[in-house]
Specification:
WD repeats lie at residues 90-122, 240-274. The structure is a single chain. This protein has helices spanning 215-218, 321-324, and strands at 4-6, 15-20, 27-32, 36-41, 46-52, 57-62, 67-72, 76-81, 87-92, 97-103, 108-113, 117-122, 132-138, 143-149, 152-157, 161-166, 169-178, 185-190, 196-201, 205-210, 222-225, 228-231, 234-237, 240-245, 252-256, 261-265, 270-274, 282-287, 293-298, 313-318. It has 2 helices and 30 strands. It is mainly beta. The strands form 8 sheets. It has a 4-stranded antiparallel β-sheet with strand order 1-30-29-28, with no helix packed on it. The two termini are 31 Å apart. Residues 330-334 have low confidence and may be disordered. 2% of the residues lie in helices and 53% in strands.
């Protein structure tokens, strides 16, 4: 099998999210500015299903089974069951739905919007045709990215705010932090071991942070420069658009507007691999649940405004266990 191949029939416009199914390594879901959410079988390299919103889709995620959730510029929070075809709008935000994550611990969806709110939603609560909005929680700024692990929710907003919540009590924040990164946060992703999260900024940096507020744990946090290119003697700095933690080894990949994908060992603060540059910005990354495949969305992110750019493509890269493993087994990785 080739180390990398291109996915057949990608979306017709900018790719917002690629995400693998949590237990089926061959199933990939893709959302796009072409208003679609599409399902692919990466082994057969074919599109197997698709549904649409009324405007660009900015994020999507899997729930239970073959249930998909998605949201975007039409402000609607949608649930689509690929196994039955059932499709419902759970509710709406007052502005674009920018980001979402499914809490398996609580079996509900969490959404973040440019209307400065977080929503929690349960498709089972409102009968056959309607989902139920469990709660809307007001935040100080627009929400750019969020992620959940166990009972924790990490929310990255404008103004460099990073709030941490306990999903069982959304009425108050567990921690209110200022981002370690000096510029706007682009993406946040929780570690698979539940100990912390990584965040990235528009200014070519990634920060690794820990939930435990003790001075010993906080002393471990750090940030580093990445996704920078020397062009004619000038250092060009690019946004880091995507982060994805390996499901077993805890190493992580970053993707930037330089078209680069880099694999990092966060425990030992080492760069493991830098892959050949993709044709345009890397807008999204996702690992398959078995850790053998990294999906890479090569899709211009309009950081430099309207300009000619390579077509929107999705690449599937096979990554060996050896490649994704930390250099040494650190104590944190047990």
């Amino acid at each position: 099998m080739a180390a990398e191949y291109e996915l057949f029939e990608p979306p017709n416009d900018a790719i917002s999210t690629v995400t693998f199914h949590p237990s089926k390594p061959e199933v990939l879901m893709v959302s796009s500015w072409d208003k679609s959410v599409a399902l692919y079988d990466i082994v057969k390299n074919q599109q197997t299903a698709k549904y649409y919103h009324n405007a660009a889709v900015l994020d999507c995620c899997f729930g239970e089974g073959m249930q998909a959730y998605s949201g975007g510029l039409d402000k609607a929070v949608r649930m689509h069951d690929f196994s039955t075809g059932r499709d419902i709008v759970l509710g709406t935000h007052d502005d674009a739905v920018r980001t979402m994550a499914f809490s398996t611990a609580n079996n509900f969806l969490v959404t973040g919007s440019w209307d400065k709110t977080i929503g929690t939603w349960d498709h089972r609560a409102g009968g056959a045709e309607h989902g139920s909005n469990l709660g809307i929680y007001h935040q100080p700024e627009k929400i750019f990215s969020l992620d959940v692990c166990d009972q924790k929710l990490v929310v990255a907003m404008a103004g460099r705010h990073v709030f941490i919540y306990d999903l069982r009590n959304m009425k108050e924040t567990l921690q209110r932090r200022e981002s370690s990164l000096k510029y706007q946060t682009r993406f946040v992703k929780c570690m698979r071991n539940g100990q912390g999260y990584a965040s990235s900024s528009i200014e070519g940096r990634v920060a690794v942070e820990f939930f435990d507020p003790s001075p010993q744990s906080q002393a471990k946090k750090y940030a580093f420069k990445c996704h920078r290119q020397n062009e004619d003697g000038v250092e060009m700095i690019y946004p880091v658009n995507a982060l994805a933690f390996h499901p077993t080894h805890g190493t992580f990949a970053s993707g930037g507007s330089d078209g680069g994908v880099t694999l990092w060992d966060g425990y030992n603060k080492k760069r493991l691999r830098q892959y050949p540059r993709y044709p345009t910005s890397v807008s999204s990354l996702s690992w398959s649940c078995d850790g053998k495949t990294l999906a890479v969305a090569s899709s211009y992110t309009f950081d430099q405004g309207e300009k000619d750019h390579a077509p929107d493509q999705i690449f599937l890269r096979s990554i060996s266990d050896q490649e994704a493993r930390p250099k040494t087994v650190a104590g944190m990785n047990k």
